[in-house]
Design brief:
alpha/beta, six-stranded mixed beta sheet
Length: about 280
């Protein structure tokens, strides 16, 4: 049985409809983070592409900076310090070369420091039945390291959007002690309506973990539409909070002891085995 000593706390997902205007997106995010903090949340997570939903990869690259010069990061650091909360910025496009960015999450501690960074490992390169084509790898460099953030609230496993479809990542995060997974996303409408809820609940149930999935929702700069429906899921699979399709926040009580309880009832994390084949 896994023991989690941290006390219960309130957590919030911020849902956005980010545009290609970075300053506007930062202002909208600040307002919703402030609202979540005013309502008692001390762990607040925002979606993938928080600061920029550009029309295409080239436009995104043109508006991106390396980590040292990105204008949003000092703002969110100061906000975490002011509000004395944890802020997970679901992702920012961080320039890592002349042709590519990293799709990177930043976890800010209440002292404003960056407690963890995570660059999205699995890149969304697909053609949907609707005809929509996405080639994230054209302008994004995939990460190569799974990350568990050690916080005073407990261990938090970081992921981004398409990672959700790769359960082995979450298994490894759980095995390293994560009781909560963050899944900031910008799911398409077709895949969201078909798979969003069931995948998030599955990752929670199979690992006995809370899942927080702040999402983009609505129509963006190039006409792309995202699914919304930010979710907070408990370790037994119950949906504790769900947004609609508009910007806003959802809040839920997170009790780390419930992860230990779920893992005691179904101790499958203790039963993983190495095997040969196929």
């Amino acid at each position: 049985m896994t023991a989690f000593r941290a006390a219960p706390f309130k957590a919030a997902c911020v849902q956005l409809c980010s545009t290609d205007d970075v300053a506007e997106n930062i202002r909208d995010t600040i307002a919703l983070v402030r609202e979540a903090a005013a309502r008692g949340s001390i762990f607040i997570a925002t979606p993938e592409n928080t600061t920029l939903m550009a029309p295409d990869g080239g436009a995104k690259l043109a508006q991106s900076y390396d980590e040292t010069h990105d204008p949003a990061l000092p703002v969110f650091s100061a906000l975490a310090t002011e509000l004395k909360v944890w802020i997970l910025i679901g992702s920012v496009a961080i320039k890592v070369s002349d042709s590519k960015t990293a799709n990177r999450s930043f976890l800010f501690a209440p002292d404003g420091g960056i407690r963890a960074r995570y660059s999205k490992i699995h890149l969304f390169d697909v053609q949907l039945a609707s005809g929509e084509v996405y080639r994230e790898s054209n302008t994004v460099a995939g990460g190569n390291e799974a990350v568990v953030a050690d916080t005073e609230l407990g261990k938090v496993g970081l992921s981004i959007c398409y990672d959700l479809r790769f359960p082995i990542l979450y298994r490894k995060l759980a095995q390293k002690g994560a009781f909560l997974f963050t899944v900031p996303s910008a799911f398409t409408v077709p895949t969201g309506s078909a798979h969003w809820h069931v995948l998030l609940r599955a990752r929670a149930i199979e690992n006995g973990a809370f899942v927080m999935a702040p999402a983009q929702g609505g129509e963006h700069a190039n006409g792309r539409k995202t699914y919304g429906h930010s979710l907070i899921v408990a370790p037994w699979g119950e949906v504790l909070g769900e947004a609609g399709t508009e910007p806003g926040i959802i809040i839920a009580d997170i009790d780390p002891a419930l992860a230990a309880e779920a893992r005691a009832k179904v101790p499958n994390l203790q039963h993983d085995r190495e095997f040969a084949g196929p």
